[in-house]
């Protein structure tokens, strides 16, 4: 009987240990390892964004990106990455058009997603307007249309994420569709515990039929805010962040483009997220300083592709 009890206890302890494995450990790392995805948002937004992002992927520490399929330059990406079969590229689910003079509309037919079309015939400028006007069914239809459009130009998405966070900060049903589609296409969705606790737990019925118990969750997302940009500047902010990086998985978001005539025209009227901001991002993430900080702080770069293998 003692042997049987010991065996049962061993099975229980082994099972508990397995369940407590962190995502880092599932990837083959330890709990104390500092793991980082250096992720460039907004590829596809402009030619300048495309060529700068690809340059940073090839020559800097950027190792992941995601595409804005409704934008005019998204189809160019399919051609530019033909020599990059291992590229970690996701779908930057885009429900808004924040720019003053640069306009784009949903990929799905406007007649099928009228709630995503503002008075000017293009997407709304902010997430609040999307949440007020777009039904969950319309948003899911547009998300699917963006994924399918990427597949048609040869992109095999490694993950989903959200432009301006509208999926996370809109209606809870948007998040449900986001998770459902990620699971349907067999790729991870960028999520962390804060998002899940704040949206799923108060709304369990909305997520019925979705496997929320086995979601892949990263530890944290980091991004430069306008205040930090003004107070510190990009190099100081990123240097401090990498020096103080915590163990676990961090996704560091940035926006890379050249400060050229095209980007200045697109971002006209903006005091942040503009052409100079994006050039500053490019300058840092392709610098020797950035590479040295990764090495000095013993940071290990990982990708969504690696995380995707764990979720399968």
From TrEMBL:
Keywords: Carbohydrate metabolism, Hydrolase, Magnesium, Metal-binding, Signal. Pfam families: YdjC. Gene3D superfamilies: Glycoside hydrolase/deacetylase. It comes from the Bacteria. The keyword Lipid biosynthesis does not apply. The keyword Disulfide bond does not apply. Residues 1-18 form the signal peptide. Its cofactor is Mg(2+). This is Polysaccharide deacetylase family protein. It comes from Shivajiella indica.
């Amino acid at each position: 009987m003692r042997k049987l009890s010991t065996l049962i206890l061993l099975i229980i302890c082994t099972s508990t240990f397995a369940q407590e494995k962190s995502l880092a450990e599932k990837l083959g790392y330890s709990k104390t390892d500092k793991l980082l995805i250096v992720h460039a948002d907004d590829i596809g937004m402009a030619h300048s964004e495309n060529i700068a992002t690809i340059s940073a992927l090839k020559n800097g520490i950027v190792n992941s990106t995601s595409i804005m399929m409704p934008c005019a330059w998204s189809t160019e990406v399919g051609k530019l990455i033909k020599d990059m079969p291992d590229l970690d590229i996701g779908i930057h689910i885009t429900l808004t058009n924040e720019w003053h003079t640069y306009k784009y509309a949903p990929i799905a037919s406007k007649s099928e997603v009228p709630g995503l079309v503002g008075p000017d015939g293009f997407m709304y400028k902010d997430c609040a307007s999307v949440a007020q006007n777009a039904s969950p069914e319309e948003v899911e239809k547009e998300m699917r249309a963006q994924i399918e459009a990427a597949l048609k130009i040869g992109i095999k998405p490694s993950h989903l994420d959200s432009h301006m966070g509208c999926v996370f900060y809109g209606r809870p049903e948007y998040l449900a569709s986001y998770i459902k589609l990620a699971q349907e296409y067999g790729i991870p969705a960028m999520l962390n515990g804060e998002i899940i606790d704040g949206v799923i737990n108060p709304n369990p019925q909305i997520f019925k039929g979705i496997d929320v118990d086995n979601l892949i969750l990263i530890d944290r997302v980091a991004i430069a805010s306008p205040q930090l940009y003004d107070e510190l500047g990009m190099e100081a902010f990123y240097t401090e962040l990498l020096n103080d990086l915590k163990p676990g998985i961090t996704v560091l978001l940035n926006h890379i483009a050249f400060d050229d005539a095209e980007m200045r025209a697109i971002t006209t009227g903006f005091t942040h997220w503009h052409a100079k901001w994006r050039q500053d991002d490019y300058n840092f993430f392709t610098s020797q300083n950035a590479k040295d900080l990764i090495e000095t702080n013993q940071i290990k770069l990982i990708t969504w592709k690696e995380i995707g293998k764990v979720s399968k």
